[in-house]
Amino acid sequence: MSLNDVVITGIGLVSCLGEGPDAHWRALSAPGAAPVLDAERFAPYTVHPLPEIDWNLQIAKRGDQRQMETWQRLGTYAAGLALDDAGIKGDEALCATMDMVVAAGGGERDVAVDSAILEASTGRPDFDVLLNEKLTTELRPTLFLAQLSNLLAGNISIVHKVTGSSRTFMGEEGAGVAAVDIAAARIRSGQSTHMLVGGAFQTEHPDMLLGYELAGYLHRGPWKPVWQRQGAEGGGVVSGSGGAFLVLESREHAEKRGHKAYAELGPVVSGRARRTRGELASAIDTLFEAAKLPDGKLLTLSAASGGHAATRAEKAALDARPDLAARAFGTLTGHMKEAQFPFAVALAALAVSNGAPYPPFDPANETAMDEKPREALATAIGYHQFEGMALVRAA
Amino acid sequence: MAKLKDHLGRPVVAVTGIGVVTSLGIGKADNWAALTAGKSGIHPITRFPVDQLNTRISGMVDFLPSSTKGASALTYELAETAGREALDESGLDAENFGGPLFLASPPVELDWHDRLALYKSGDNLDAAERVLEAARTLNSCDMFDSAQFGFIADRLADTFGATGLPITLSTACASGATAIQLGVEAIRRGECDRALAIGADGSATAEALIRFSLLSALSTSNDAPEKASKPFSKDRDGFVLAEGSAALVLESLEAALARGATVLGILRGCGEKADDFHRTRSKPDASPAIAAVKAALADAGLGEDEIDYINAHGTSTPENDKMEHLSLSTVFGERIGRIPVSSNKSMIGHTLSAAGAIEAAFSLMTMREGVIPPTINYDNADPAIPLDVVPNVKREAKVGTVLSNSFGFGGQNTCLVMAREPV
Questions:
Q1: How many domains would you assign to chain B?
Q2: Which residue intervals define the domain Ketosynthase family 3 (KS3) in the entry (chain B) (predicted)?
Q3: A163-201 per-position pLDDT tens digit
C-alpha cells in the first residue's frame, strides 16, 4: 500500500442496460441477463441502443444540450454520473484541480446534409463546386463543434467545471487504454491527485457503423453472443451506444476526503502488435505476463468486440489459461469502441467491490466461478489494432 | 557539469532532434531562412475550387506527393517527413527508435471523394444505407485506414520502430504542445529515456475551411494572401488555415549526454489549464490562459523575470490576440512591454493540430540561432495591445529562455517553457 496507489472512487456508466453502477451491477450479476437489441433500425446490422435518458439530470442547461449532439451529451452525462458517484460533482475546488483524459472518436455528421449532397451529385461533373455550394449554405455552424473530438472534454469542462487540465486521446479501443494508463501513471508519479477518465460511443448513426463497415467488421444476420460469431455472416462486431467514466484518485487524496474506493487500479499494460505479421497471439501473452496476474481463479472482464481475428486470438489466449473466468460483456452491451476499455475496468471494479463474480454471460463459452473475487482483470484486444489490460484489486 | 535532475528532482528533458514542414518548405533550413526573412507562405487555394467560399487563401502544404491525396495521407506524410528529419538529426536509429510516440493530429473523417465513390457504386435509394452497403461490398483497406483515428500513429510507429501503444491526441489548437508535454512527462516519470513527439496537420479540406468560416474565424483578406495573417494588428480579421508538421526527439539529458548527442535545447516546463467559459471563446478575464502560463513557469522553476522571449499563439483573430495580451500583461506586469513577443503564424498561418509543435521547434531554433523571427504584416498597431511584436523584421538577440503559448477551442490552454542550455 502506498499513498500514491490509484483507487477508483467514482463510476459513471451508460449502456443499453441502463445507467449508473448499481443498475449495471443488478443487470449483470443476475444469471441469464438478456441483451437489449435493435435489429430493425440499421438492418442488416443489430445495435445495442441507448436507454431512455433524461439529459437534464446531468446537463442542467438546455443551451448546453443544444450545443451538443448525442455523442457529446452521452459522454458529458456519463462523466457527470462518475463525478456524482465520487462525491466531487459541484465541488468547485475539487473540479477546478481535477485533470481529465477523454478517449474520443468524432461526433455525428448531419445525415440530411450529407445525403442531400450525395443525391445532388448525380449528373454534376463538378462535385467539388457542389460541395462548396451545399456546405456553405446548409451546414449548421455549431455542428462543427459537436463533431470535434476534443469538444467532449470541452463540454465536460463547461458543464461540470472540470478544469485542471483536459486532454483527448483518439484511436478506437487503444485511446481508452491509453487514457486509463496515462491517468494512472500521472497519479502514481504524483503528477496528479485526482482524475476523470473515460469515453463514450454513440453507434446509432450511419457513419458510426460505417467506421467499422469500411473494412467489413460488422456482424450481420441474427444476433449471437460475442464468442459465437466466428463463421457467421459479416465481421463479428455488434456495436452498442454507451459511455464509461471513472474517477481515479491517489489513495491519499481519497482517504483525506473520506471517500470510499470501489477498488485499487493495479498495473495497466498496453501494446501494439503488428498483426499483419502475426504478432497478436504473442503480444497477448506478453500482456498477460506484464499484468502480473495473481494465482488462482481470476474474473476477467473481456472487452472483446466479436471481430473475428481479434476475438479468436483473445479466446485462444483465454482458453490457454483455465484460471481466467472470462466475461465478454459486449455480449450484453455491444462494442462501445473508445469507451470499451474504461467500461471493462469499471465492471471489474464493481465485481471486486461487491465481492462477487458475474455469472457467465454466454454459458456455453464462459466457465462458472464461485470464488469471491479479490482481483479482476480487464482486457481490450482492439477489433483492428492496439491492445491493453488492467488489473483491479480490492481497495 | 550540467544538472541531470530539475528543481523538482525529475530528469531534465533535452531536445536532440528537430524536424519541420510548413507552407514555407520542407526542413529546418528552408523554413528558418524564410521565417527570418519575413516571408509569408500564405497563398491562394488551388487544391479545390473556391467557388462560393468567403476565404480563398491558406497556408496549405501543396508540394508533397500526398498533397492532393486527402487529409489522412497528407497528415501521415507531413508527420513522417518531420519525424525523419528530427530522428536523423538526433543520430538515433530512424527505423528502430526504441521509445514511445505521441502524435498530435486532426480528428479524421472519411474523405468526401471516398464517400462519393461509395455512393456512386451502390443503388440503394437511401443515401446513407447505400454508402454502408457499398462499403461492405468494396471492403477497402485504404478507406478504412483513413477513417481510423489510430491509423496514422500506428503506421508511424511501424516506420520509426516506436515502442508500445502510440498515443494520438487532440487538444484542438494546443495539440502539438500537448504531444510534447506527454513526451516530457513520460521521461520525467522514468518510463523511457527518449520519446518522439510529432504534431502534424494536413486537414485543410474544403469542408474544414467552410466549418471555420461559418464560425467567422478565418481571415477574408483574399486579395493579398501574404498580408492576410496580421497578429496583433488593429485590422486583424481572423486566422489563416494552414498545414504543417514538426517533430521533436526528446531525451533525458542524462541519456543524451551519455551517447554524446548534441543538445539542441531543454524542455524546462509545461503548464495547462482548461477553460469552462465557452466552446470557442475564452473567459473574458483570461484566467485560464494566465493559469496555464503560470503553471508552465512553475513547472520550469523559472520566475516571470526569467523569460527572454515569448512565441505567441498569436492567431490574428480579434479575440485571441486580445486575450493573449491580457494574459501576458497580467503575468509579466509592466515588463511585458520589454519582452519580445512574436507570432510565427503571421508567416505560416495557423497549422491547428501541428501549431504547438511547429512553434516549439521554431522557439528552439530562435534560441540556438540568436535570431527572433518577426511578426510580419504589422503595419497598423492595435493600441489596445501594446506589445513588442518584433515588427516586420527579424531581430538578433541572445535568447536563453522562451515561453510558447497554445490556446484552442474547447478551452484548451497549454504552454511550454524551453531553455537554450541545461542549468
A1: 2
A2: 10-420
A3: 999 999 999 999 999 999 999 999 999 999 999 999 999
Separation between Cα atoms, residue B154 and residue A382, nearest integer Å: 13
Q: Are residues A262 and A395 in contact, defined by beta-carbon separation less than 8 angstroms?
A: yes
Q: Which three cell numbers stand for residue B256?
A: 543524451
Domain membership of residue B4 (yes or no) is no
Which domains can be identified in chain A, with CATH numbers? 6-107+148-393 (3.40.47.10)
Question: Which cell numbers hold the place of B225?
Answer: 494572401
Q: With a CB-CB cutoff of 8 Å, which residues 287-346 of chain B face chain A? A: 288
Residues recorded for chain B: 423
Q: Is the dihedral of CA A199, A200, A206, A209 positive or negative?
A: positive
CA–CA separation, B308 and A2 (whole Å): 41
Report the percent of chain A where pLDDT is more than 90. 99
User: Contacts of residue B139 in chain A, CB cutoff 8 Å?
Assistant: 214-216
B65-100, pLDDT tens digit by residue?
999 999 999 999 999 999 999 999 999 999 999 999
Residues B182 and B320 in one domain: yes
- Alpha-carbon gap, residue B21 to B30, rounded angstroms: 9
Active site residue B270: no
Give the length of chain A. Answer: 395
Instruction: Please return the burial class of B223, using the count of CB atoms within 10 Å of its CB with bins 0-12, 13-18 and 19+.
Output: exposed
Give the distance from CA B167 to its chain's centroid.
16
On the CB side of A64, CA atoms within 13 Å amount to 25
Q: Predicted ipTM?
A: 0.98
B6: in domain:
no
Classify residue B261: in a domain, yes or no.
yes
Cβ B412 vs Cβ A166: under 8 Å: yes
Candidate from B149, B158, B178 with C-beta closest to A167:
B178
- Ramachandran area for residue B14 (φ above 0: left; ψ -120 to 50: alpha; else beta): beta
In a domain, residue B126? The reply is yes
Query: Residues B217, B231: one domain?
Result: yes
B340 in the same domain as B269: yes
* Cα B177 to Cα B199: distance, rounded to the nearest angstrom: 8
CB count in 10 Å sphere of residue B222:
15
- Chain A hits for B288, Cβ within 8 Å: 163
Domain that holds residue B153: 13-108+148-419
pLDDT of residue B279: 93
CA separation for the pair B262, B246 (Å, rounded): 19
CA B275 – CA A191 distance, rounded (Å): 20
Q: B192, B313, B325, B415: which is the annotated catalytic residue? A: B313
Query: pLDDT by residue (tens digit) across A345-371?
Result: 999 999 999 999 999 999 999 999 999
* Residue B309: strand pairing partners: B402
Partners of residue A168 in chain B, C-beta under 8 Å = 169-171
- Answer yes or no: are the C-beta atoms of B32 and B356 closer than 8 Å: no
- DSSP secondary-structure letter at B104? E
Residue A142 DSSP symbol: T
- A188 C-beta neighbours (distance < 10 Å), count: 17
Q: State whether B131 and B39 are in the same domain.
A: no
Per the structure block, which three cell numbers stand in for A216? 467489413
Quick one: CA dihedral B134, B139, B145, B150, positive or negative?
positive
- For B227, residues 6+ apart whose C-beta sits below 8 A from its C-beta are B40, B221, B377
On whether both B184 and B195 belong to a single domain, the answer is yes
According to DSSP, the β-strands at B43-44 and A18-19 are: unpaired
C-alpha triplet B201, B206, B211: angle, nearest 5°:
85
